[in-house]
Amino acid sequence: MKDYFALLARYNLWATRRIYESLDALSEADYRGDTGLFFRSIHGTLNHLLVASDRVWYRRFAEGVSPRDVQLSDELETDRATLKAAQLRSAAHWCDFVASVSVERYAGMIEYTTMRGTVAVLPFAATLAHVFNHSTHHRGQITAALTARGHAAPALDLVYMLQQEQARPAG
C-alpha cells in the first residue's frame, strides 16, 4: 500500500506540473471564461482543487483537523502564478505526507467531520485514494475544457509518467 500511494502522490505532482505547462500559455479569457465546468472556469476548477486537496483533505489527513471555515467553491488565489505555486506546494506536501505514513496506518480508519458537520469514519486507504482520484477527475475536466476551446491538452495518463521515469538515466 505504501508504495502504491507514493506512486499516486508522485503522479499527482507530475500531472499538476503537466497541466500547468499547458495552462501557462492560455489567454486570460480562456483561463477565466465560463467553460461549463461545475466550478465554471479553469481558474475556478483549479481553485476548487486547491481548496479540496490542501485546505480540506490534507488538513484532515496530516493534521487531524476538520476545517469548516472554507467552501469548496472559494477562490483562494486570484493570481494565476500564486495559484500555480500553491498547487505545486500542495502536491509536494502530499508526497511528503504519504512517505511519512506507516504501513499499518493504511489498514486503519480516518475519522473527520464533514463540511456539513457530520462525523465520518471511513477506511484510511480508500479515502486517501479518493483524494488523488478527485484531482484526476478535475484535471480531466480541465483537459476537456482546453480541447473545447481549441487548445492542445496534455497527455496525463499514469503510464506516461512511468515511461518518463523509466527513461531517466539512473544515478
Describe the structure.
This protein is mostly helical and 171 residues long. The chain contains six helices and two strands. The protein has helices spanning 2-23, 28-32, 42-63, 80-100, 124-148, 158-167, and strands at 109-113, 119-123. It has a two-stranded antiparallel ribbon with strand order 1-2. A hairpin with a 5-residue loop joins strand 1 and strand 2. The mean pLDDT is 95.
Brief account:
This protein is mainly alpha-helical and 171 residues long. It has helices spanning 2-23, 28-32, 42-63, 80-100, 124-148, 158-167; strands at 109-113, 119-123. Strand 1 and strand 2 form a beta hairpin.
> Helicity level, as a percent range?
55-70%
The general outline is globular
Q: How far apart, in Å, are the first and last alpha carbons?
A: 26 Å
Mean of all residue-level pLDDT scores: 95
Q: Provide the gyration radius in Å.
A: 16 Å
Largest sheet at a glance? 2 strands, antiparallel
Relevant terms:
single chain, 171 residues, mainly alpha, two-stranded antiparallel sheet, 61% helix
List the helices and strands and how they pair.
Blueprint: H1 2-23, H2 28-32, H3 42-63, H4 80-100, E1 109-113, E2 119-123, H5 124-148, H6 158-167
Antiparallel strand pairs: 1-2
Helix pairs in contact: 1-4, 1-5, 3-4, 3-5
